Amino acid sequence: MFVTFTKDICDQSVQLTWNGCINMPHAVGSYKVMVSINGGPYTYYGSNSSGDTTYNVTNLIPQSTYCFLIVATNGTGQITAESNRFCYTVPIPSQPKFNYLRDASVMVPNNTVKLTAFVDVTAHARSYHFYRASTPTETPVHFATVNTPAGANISVIDNDVNASLGSYYYSMFVVDSCGAERTVSNTDRTIWLQATTNDPTTTNILTWNDYSRFLGGVSSYNIWRAIDGVWQNGPLANIPYTSAGTNTYSDNVSAFYSTAGRFEYYVQALEGGSDPYGFADTANSNIAEALQNATLFIPNAFKPSGIDRIFKPLGTFVDVNDYHFDIFDRWGEQVFTTTDKNAGWDGTRKGNKCEVGAYVYLISFKTSYGEFVDRKGTVTLLR
């Protein structure tokens, strides 16, 4: 008898085939399959009837060596004959030397997440599976597959998240040529930034979790700020990395009383210089908004010939784009109107002095929350 075999790397199995034993006294009664694993003794694995000369051996252990032998036994069980022996070491598809999830960065301004990975293109990878979880203990869910890329860097965008509501944890598996997930990457966690106003002071408090998944470590954080929807040209501040887990920054915005009081921020983690692959990556947080409350002080009298010569409301964090200020006399006729927050009434109408007495003012403005406020009252004109 001479045994040959067909291997299936993906199923980790072999099919043994041999020619039937002939001219055995009392004919062949059965064939026994004997196996030795990693140099151990031959033991019984299974058997076939005399007419069956094919046998499937399954559930082989990768990187183990199996040696096979077929033993034919005649009908009386008194005569045996052995086949040739052969050995087979179970391979596994070529595994990657590295599988690095470089960064998980929130996309500004839509709060989705972009992942960038660096992979070993010499490995026999069929594709890459990306997983997401909302907590460290949650079972990750598969949300994206990327086929084998042409280069070593791949990226994917997770559109099914809102990174302004919390952090997300990401990992990536290499799928080998057999379709099995073999190698898992490091786990990345996005930066979740929260911003609050510290009333009654005019400060905004920023809080965010550490980003610590760069192979080169985190060197520091840049803080970026927008005022009334306009992002500043450079970072507001650079904060050293302390590995504290949670970071806090206080931004005093008292110098911006004349704005509408809408402040937006995001934090950017900067990678240190010890990345073994030479990367210097960044990872952004979500955008967090801090809205300062509008205030408006309105005098109840003014004297054009005195110290307070102009009647003008004094406001902080009042939107200049939706501001209306009107003055009416006792008969309901308009004597003054403006949409300029810095303009005031000098007690005249069309260049002529108005009479001493009470006048009605009506002020309408929009707050940083987008709410419209109407203030109505009277002011006394003195001479």
Give a summary of the structure in a few sentences.
With 383 residues, the chain is mainly β.
Explain this structure to me?
- By secondary structure, the protein is mainly β.
- The chain has four domains: 3-89, Immunoglobulin-like (Sandwich), CATH 2.60.40; 99-189, Immunoglobulins (Immunoglobulin-like, Sandwich); 193-291, Immunoglobulin-like, CATH 2.60.40; 295-381, Immunoglobulin-like (Sandwich).
- 0% of the residues lie in helices and 51% in strands.
- The chain is built from no helices and 34 strands.
- The protein has strands at residues 3-8, 13-18, 28-37, 43-49, 54-57, 65-74, 80-82, 86-89, 99-106, 113-119, 125-133, 141-147, 153-158, 169-176, 181-184, 188-189, 193-197, 203-209, 218-227, 230-231, 237-240, 246-252, 262-271, 282-284, 288-291, 295-297, 301-302, 314-316, 324-328, 334-338, 348-349, 352-353, 357-366, 372-381.
- The strands form nine sheets. Strands 19, 20, 21, 23, 24 and 25 form a six-stranded antiparallel β-sheet that branches. Strands 3, 4, 6, 7 and 8 form a five-stranded antiparallel β-sheet that branches. Strands 11, 12, 14, 15 and 16 form a five-stranded antiparallel β-sheet that branches.
- The protein is rod-shaped and about 140 Å long.
- The N and C termini lie far apart (127 Å).
- The model has no long low-confidence stretch (mean pLDDT 93).
Q: What is the topological layout?
A:
Blueprint: E1 3-8, E2 13-18, E3 28-37, E4 43-49, E5 54-57, E6 65-74, E7 80-82, E8 86-89, E9 99-106, E10 113-119, E11 125-133, E12 141-147, E13 153-158, E14 169-176, E15 181-184, E16 188-189, E17 193-197, E18 203-209, E19 218-227, E20 230-231, E21 237-240, E22 246-252, E23 262-271, E24 282-284, E25 288-291, E26 295-297, E27 301-302, E28 314-316, E29 324-328, E30 334-338, E31 348-349, E32 352-353, E33 357-366, E34 372-381
Parallel strand pairs: 27-34
Antiparallel strand pairs: 1-2, 2-5, 3-4, 3-6, 6-7, 6-8, 9-10, 10-13, 11-12, 11-14, 14-15, 14-16, 17-18, 18-22, 19-20, 19-21, 19-23, 23-24, 23-25, 26-28, 29-30, 29-33, 31-32, 33-34
